[in-house]
Here is the input.
Amino acid sequence: MPDHILGDKEFEAIPSIKNKALRINLNENIYGTFAEIGAGQETVRNFFRAGGASGTIAKTISAYDKDFSDAIYGVEEDGRYVTESRLVKMLSHEINLIEERIDRKNHPDKMFFAYANTVATIDFAKKYLGHGWLGIKFQTHPKEDYSEIIIHIRFKENEALLQQQTLGILGVNLIYGAFYKHDQPKKLLRYLYDHIDKDKIEIDTVNFSGPKFENVDNRLMSLQLIKNGMTEAIVFGPDGNNILPARIFYKKNILALRGSFRPVTKVNIDMFEKSYEMFMKENRVDEERTLTIFEITLSNLRAEGEINEQDFMDRARLLCSLGHTVMISNFQEYYRLVEYFSNYTRARMGLTMGVNNLIDIFDEKYYRHLSGGILEAFGKLFFKDLKVYLYPMYNQETKEFINSENLKVHPRMKELYKFFKYNGKVVDIENVNPDVLTIFSRDVLHKIEAGEVGWEEMLPSGVSEIIKEKALFGCKKAVAKT
Here is the structure.
């Protein structure tokens, strides 16, 4: 970033919102449009109040009426306006107008930007707190292509005025971060909460794109959202981009498989494929309305101490390469995962798990923080239309297969387990591949790190090649033969 364009003076360690807006305003080369729909013009208001805005603000618009908005940005096919699609159209339209109306020859140092948001604040009945999309399309040099930051938020405050004020602060933080912290995207994310308490707003989706972020992996940015306490769960697709949870889970049947996937093995895929076959045979389950999720918990990522971001990326790359949707959550207990899904769907749910995971579910120590203990947790877990698909475990010492019929829970939990088992809430996965039951991720990982042979055949097709090519999990990069 050229210092002569953006400047290198810091107003203070944590600049006030006024100072952030003022720093933007006093930079004669930053010039752009504000387009805000649904919560007033709360962001641009801060720039007007800071002073010196005449050289920064090309235009401010609030196309609040739907017909007027459609005339400017086009009609949304689904009739919804608080969407990522709407935001993207707003950003592109406003940037195109600036490019058309401002002659670059007369303004060779101008760096254009468009900031936009489309938001629904709390309703009159105070039943829905509201949510919104906001983003910025910007340059840090007049001749470069545009970069983009898009985020989705959920309001937590229960007054529309408070939500509007919070949105305005967040907008300033985003614009300031785009111009002055784009080379430190992790810090940029943290600074979005400057002067905002985390109990006021949740950021559950973020995507960076463009030349300034060509080396940014949005999966890693997703992880920062959870690490920073900005949200409880994030979802990203096979392409590595974040997906809005509400959009992907809405009214879907959900089958979730939790694991470490360090690395993903043939046994993980067998668990998934065989449980999926059974899930699809359930009543009211059809393929078009069914979503499968590979979930990793934050506690799992912390199993070895501090979160190793490279290790996380290794796991994510492999799962994405196999075409799976991945979820990272802060839900150590399964009932919290089911509660989360229930926010978006009332359709059928399935949890695929191994024997040890099911035994842990019936361990009272995980529910001591609940006033109702394990019964409260189980009421939340099994109250919904949910079924557990149990994958058997081969005991190498006793040479026996352990399934729902012969697994052992704590004696105090025995009758409770029987209740759920014989009411069809726990079912054994059928037609498992006996050849993969002795495969464990920890053994594969040890072989990879030790440089041993034979681990390749324990993994799904194509995975070992990726591990070698990308030198994942401490694997020495394969040397091409000449």
Residues 247-436 form a domain with the Rossmann fold fold (CATH 3.40.50). The longest strand covers residues 111-120.
